[in-house]
Amino acid sequence: MKTRVVGIIGLVAVVAAAVFGLFVVPADLNQGDAQRIMYPHVASAWLGYLSFGVTALAGLLYLWKRDLRFDAVALAGAEVGVMFTAFAIWGGMMWGKPVWGTFWQWEDPRLTTTALLLALYVGYLLLRRLTDDPSRRATRAAIVGLVAAIDIPIVHFSVIWWRGLHQTATIGDPSKLLHPSAPPLFIIALMSMLTAFTFVWGYLMIRRYQLARIDWQIEEHGRLGRISAARRAAAANAGRAVAPALDARTEEVAP
Amino acid sequence: MTDIGFIVAAYGVILGGMAVYAITLRRRLASLRDVSLRIRGEAAAADERPDEAP
Predict the structure, then answer these.
(1) pLDDT reported for residue A250
(2) How far apart (Å, rounded) are the C-alpha atoms in residues B51 and B44?
(3) Cβ contacts (< 8 Å) between B21 and chain A: which residues?
(4) What's the gap in Å between the CA of B47 and the closest CA on chain A?
(5) 20 to 30 Å CA-CA from A208: which of A29, A39, A198, B19?
(6) What does DSSP assign to residue A149?
(7) Which residue of A has its CA nearest to B3?
């Protein structure tokens, strides 16, 4: 019930933030209307970071506590993070074409490291399908999730460390917190979109976690069923092997 | 394509994608909850019939 409330708040907030960003905030002087794509693009990118951060933290906690609930949280973070990172890339491409004149440039460090981040966590999700053993799967996934998280700061600071097509942070840089390089109305629109997306993110994370837990319970039931069937089969085979031996012994004893 | 086209494509895919993912999660969750309840029901029924066990 509470999850549904989070979802409804997220839905209303996203609609309100989209209307605000599309129709209330004026167009940018240089970039025109295309700048409006920044609001969902940046919000998606930040939530991608957050999701993968949650995956890494949950993986670390799994390795420490060996509790499969942390693995479910890590899975939720990875799947939701892949979705938000894909949205950030898509939004960036739709922004890049009218502003930069190109959808994509492999030489740009921010674009390339973000594509790498997406590939790493798609790999993480694929890796999880390689084994049915929950603890082995969780251990492998936790290690990969932690290693892949190294790319998060590289993506974020790539615009500072290397020169490229992508602009530097508008407000992410601590020195720009008090004096952002964008007008206040743009910042309000961005923060509104980020808040709205965060509610949706919370809803999706909870639902994906619940799904992972039920999936695991069904998987566990199937595994126990297979084990008991194998035991029954083994017992039946043993019975079949013992029966002729007993018959032979009976014949020997009988006159 | 005009700026408006890019904006519609960006917002459409991002907001639409989130909606589709949320609906898919809800449907999968409802379906798996049914399976889980059925399994629990079968397990409870098996527990009530110990005589029939091999």
Answers:
(1) 56
(2) 14
(3) 83, 204
(4) 14
(5) A39
(6) T
(7) A34
Helices A38-65/A109-127 angle, 10° precision: 40
Which residue range is the domain that position A111 belongs to? 2-219
Tell whether A48 lies on the interface with B, counting CB pairs under 8 A: no
- Chain B closest CA to A122's CA: distance in Å? 16
The 3-state DSSP composition of chain B as helix, strand, coil percent (nearest 5) reads 90, 0, 10
Number of domain units in chain A = 1
3-state SS record for A79-113: HHHHHHHHHHHHHHHHHHHHHHCCCCCCCCHHHHH
| Cβ neighbours around A153 below 10 Å, total | 12
Nearest to A98 among B6, B13, B15 (CB): B6
- Tell me if A206 sits within 8 A of A214, measured CB to CB: no
The verdict on residue A248 lying in a domain is no
Rounded Cα distance between B4 and A181, Å, is: 25
pLDDT digits (tens, 9 = 90+) for A219-237: 888 888 888 889 989 998 8
The whole-angstrom distance between B45's CA and the closest CA on chain A is 15
Task: Place A68 in a pLDDT band, splitting at 50, 70 and 90.
Answer: very high
Question: A127 lies in a domain?
Answer: yes
State the CATH number of the domain containing residue A125. Answer: 1.20.120
Query: Within a domain: residue A174?
Result: yes
Number of Cβ pairs < 8 A linking chain A and chain B: 79
Tracing tokens 């898919």 back to the chain, one arrives at B24
Backbone angles phi, psi at A188, to 5 degrees: -60, -45
A174-220 tens-digit pLDDT:
666 666 667 888 999 999 999 999 999 999 999 999 999 999 888 88
Residues of B in contact with A203 (CB under 8 A): 22
Please list, residue by residue across B18-48, b when 16 or more beta carbons sit within 10 angstroms of its beta carbon and e when fewer do: beebbeebeeebeebeeebeeeeeeeeeeee
